[in-house]
Amino acid sequence: MRRPDAGAAVVGSAVALQSSDVASPVSAAATAGAIPAASIVPAPVVPAPVGQAAPATSLAALRQAVAINGRLALGVDPLQASLAARPFETTSVAAVLRSLAADAAVGSDAAARLRPWGDAAAAQASLAALYEQVRATARSGLAAGLANQGAYREAAREMLLVLATVGGVDEAARALASSVGIDLPPGGAG
Prior knowledge:
Number of domains: 2
Radius of gyration: 28 Å
Order of helices and strands: EEHHHHHHH
Number of helices: 7
CATH topology of the largest domain: Four Helix Bundle (Hemerythrin (Met), subunit A)
Distance between the termini: 69 Å
Strand order of the largest sheet: 1-2
Shape: elongated
Oligomer: single chain
């Protein structure tokens, strides 16, 4: 580093140079020991174009989404049993709604990790919409007091309608996985 001379002023630990000492803004920053501002700006994340190889994180997220879809589909039987039970137990419906909401939260994270993969755009949108609908339906039902049997019956019915769509969304996710050679366990969600 150059030592200040009579024509330079010392400001803190940086040296302010005269214009005759500076060839360019970058060399001024380097001379003063600073990092040029352009070098600290992070590069934007750009989705991979359609037809390009899938990022490894997206492939893992697709596997995870399919597993989550299977877990969501497992909520159908307990909700149907709760609706058929006499007496009706709001606590059993609440437990299922909480479990589904938690699974959908994990699914939302997985769907977000599909964004960088251009070929997954349609599946990503469908998965994200499904998980948000599950979460919103669960939140709506769980907002009612446990003594409100009518609200919990309605929430269970609404969730069953949402869960009826899991099979189609899962089928599309499995088709995408198959198109890139991902081996998934047999079965499906619905």
